Amino acid sequence: MSARIIEIPSEERVREALSRDATARRIMAKNTALYDGMLCGARLNLNVLRSTGVAVNTIHAPTNKHGYKQNKGWFNGAALSYQAVTVIRNGYCNVQQSSRDKIAMGTANKSPIACIDGELDCQSNIRLDGVELRFNPARERLFVDANGHPVQFVEYATVVGHRVYARGLIRYYEHEGEAPPKVGNAPCAVVFPSQDRKRLLA
Length: 202
Hints:
alpha+beta; about 30% strand; about 200 residues; globular
């Protein structure tokens, strides 16, 4: 994984970027209150990033009660608000597999298909340490660490820009049978930990 310098935009830059996006203006006008412990999803807003160059997370409302723990993410839930940095407790790393395949194959444009879903943490300090995770639909079908190992759950996740920083308990998909089934024919660079152990034993 290549090193990436993380720049957290100031509140002023975030407000300015959001003011230039019609959808963001409409959402912000609702003035929805966010609070510690609320269930929500966090993902990078690609539209704002493309049009302004400012990385902002969209905060989504839940679309199911328990399904987010089985890869039924909230990336299509109602947009509630926006943040430059979001901390999620007990977060599940969810990716919609059929949409990811279409994006990877070039038959669909990038759209909201991935999210970190869990409890909003408004109490913890912003930290950019821990295990760095990424998701690029052109390469992987799941969130992965630097070794390409796919991650299902993180106790604390800081979502900022193109990266997620995971701390505390991190639960991996150990083998392919534990992960959401792969859809389609797009290549995937995910390496399950059990595959690495087999290589070491060979």
